[in-house]
Structures are given as structure tokens and as C-alpha cells.
Amino acid sequence: MRGNPIVQSLAWAALLGTALPLPAAESLPLLLAETEQGQADVALYLVSEKLDGVRAFWDGQALRTRKGHTIQVPSWFVAQFPAQPLDGELWIGRGDFERLSGIVRRQTPDDSQWQQVRYLVFELPQSPGTFRQRALALRELTARLALPWLQAVEQWEFGSREALEKKLEQIVRGGGEGLMLHRADAAYVTGRSDVLLKLKAWHDAEATVIGHQPGRGKYAGMLGALRVRTAGGVEFMLGTGLSDADRRQPPPVGTLITFRYRELTGRGLPRFASYHRPRDL
Fold first, then answer.
1. I need a surface site. Which of 53, 84, 110, 216 has the fewest CB within 10 A?
2. CA-angle at 204, arms to 202 and 208, nearest 5°
3. What does the pLDDT average to over 163-178?
4. CA–CA separation, 248 vs 224, rounded Å?
5. 99 exposed, middle or buried (CB, 10 Å; 0-12, 13-18, 19+)?
């Protein structure tokens, strides 16, 4: 096969069903969460588990990622999906993001792998009413369709912050990421908004890779650390959290990544920062 190497790679990927970085697309106007820092009256919110999955928007014809890429799925997976839009996460289980990402990225979907995937939905985009009303309509919709892989995300209510913190502890102890708080009286909105809050034992943020620090000792010949820059212009080295596979094939310069941290120093640097994953889905 001769010619442009990128075209060759895409052709081989199509033939072999392997995963490649997705081409550029237009980001979708979805609701994005702010961070909960003790400011919320928890009684005003419906609360669900924060899922470590792949955000997926059903537009009535196709599943799309947060960045607008079409997700290649087996026809049976979406054959009975409704015409109305849905917003949710493709999910396998706690701690299984890497395996899920590999399944979602395949150019030719693998039926046996997709049988492990569920689409857990938490919103009816553009629908009228409050979030409480939309959550009820979503439960009724998924119950009516009765598809094992299409489920409404369970929503809880808590009368106190103490009860909320106990639930967070339970979720984290079980291997979960945290909780999502959605104002029960909120109309449907898009963009980053405090009608949706994320509550985690760790904070997370995004940064762009601007350089690679060579490894030493046992990491000689591999990546030692990533030099990254946040949207606010803060630069720092990120070496914790990288697997050997990440060190052998590090995220290229220009890649947007997600990292986790405990708190910010007085100079705005993340304390105990740890690499999480590329932010490309």
C-alpha cells in the first residue's frame, strides 16, 4: 500500500478494526459541571454517581462523543433507541475506562465487546420541565424500552451534607470516582454551569502537554515526566500516575490531558498532581 502514510494507517485500521486517534470534529453544546466546594444546599439537588465512562450524546441517529465524533457501534446497540436526544455515559464498570476507551475507538465495532457496554443516561436534552421531571421521564422511557444496555442513572436525595458525605465515602471506598449533584428545579441548559456540580475526594483539571522530560534509572529510554500548562497559564511537571505503556508512548505535545490533585498551593500549583488520561473523547 503506497501513498500518504496517514491514509495508509486509516485504511489498515478500517481493515483490522483497530483503534486510532479520532479526527477533528466540532464539540457538542452539552452541560458541563462546576466543582462542589461546600457551597451547595444539598436538599435542592438530585445526586448520582460520577461515572468514569465515555460521555455519549444520542442525537436520534448516532451516538457522538463530547467532541462530536461519531461512535461506531453495532447496529443492534442503537436499533431501538428513541428518536429524541439522550445524554449519558457509555460504561462497563468502575476502574474500566481504558478497556472501554479501546472498545469505543475501534473503527469496526466488535459485537462481543459491545455486549459488555451499557449506555447510562442522565438527561433528556432540550426537553421541557425541571430536572426532576426530566429524570422521571427518563426512567419511564428506559423502562418502556426495556433494553438491558440502556438504563437511567439512579438519582438519590439527601437531607443533609453529612448524609451526602457518607454516600461519597461509600462510593469512593467501592472504587467509584465521586458524585454528581444536579439542581432538581433546573431547566435544561448547556455550557459550564453550577446547576450541575461534581463532588470528588480528589479534584481534577485539564492541561496541555508542552514537553517531555526524559526518564532516568528504571525509566531510562522512556518518558520521565510530562511538562504541562493549564488554561490559566500554570506550568508544572507531571510524572506520577503514568503507566509503563504511557511512558513508552507518551501523549504527544499539544494533547489535552486530565490530571488529579488534592489542592492548590498558594502559588496556584496543584499539590500531589497525578496523570489520569488523555482528554480526547
1. 216
2. 150
3. 92
4. 10
5. middle
Burial class (CB in 10 A: 0-12, 13-18, 19+), 16: exposed
Contact 238, 259 (CB under 8 A): yes
What percent of the chain lies above the pLDDT cut of 90? Answer: 72
Complete edge-to-edge strand list for the sheet that includes strand 256-261 = 235-238, 223-230, 203-214, 256-261, 274-278
Q: Which is more confident, 214 or 262?
A: 214
Residue 166 is placed in which grid cell?
A: 457518607
| 140/98 Cα distance (integer angstroms) | 31
Which pLDDT does position 122 carry in this prediction? 98
Residues near 226 by beta carbon (within 8 Å), at least 6 away in sequence: 209, 211, 212, 213, 237, 238, 239, 242, 250, 251, 257, 275
Cα(233)–Cα(237) distance, rounded to whole angstroms?
Answer: 13
Longest Cα–Cα distance of the chain, Å, equals 65
Distance of CA 178 to the CA centre of its chain: 13
- What tens digit of pLDDT does each residue of 13-46 get? 333 333 334 444 678 899 999 988 787 899 999 9
* Averaged confidence pLDDT in the chain: 88
Task: Give Cα 121 to chain centroid, integer Å.
Answer: 13
Between CA 109 and CA 75 the distance in angstroms is: 9
